[in-house]
Amino acid sequence: MDAKVVRRQKLKWRIRKKISGTAECPRLSVFRSNKEIYAQLIDDVTGITIVASNSRGKDVESKGNKVDISKMVGMSIASKAKAKGIERCVFDRGGYLYHGRVKAIADGAREGGLNF
User: Fold this and answer.
1) The model's pTM
2) What whole-number distance in Å separates Cα of residue 28 and Cα of residue 42?
3) Structure confidence by residue, pLDDT tens digits, 7-23
């Protein structure tokens, strides 16, 4: 495997040791690829994804740059979470730096009404 991938995986494990999601306060997990971005709210107690959203979905408008699209994904997951009655979550940046697209998802989710 690539050294960059191994480094991110170690960071991801280190973060996951410290945070965990429940049904009342799920974990907002972020995955970033070169083209797309994915976010999901996960209940780690039962191991179930409660809500998911990504930049490929029909509910996200794919106009603008990748940071703008990421913010829309954050707002989309927040609105879906509100529909399910979820107000709070813990943010899992997935080993990525809290910068750019990852920060845009967090900002969009906060604008949509989720509390971290």
Assistant:
1) 0.90
2) 7
3) 999 999 999 999 999 98
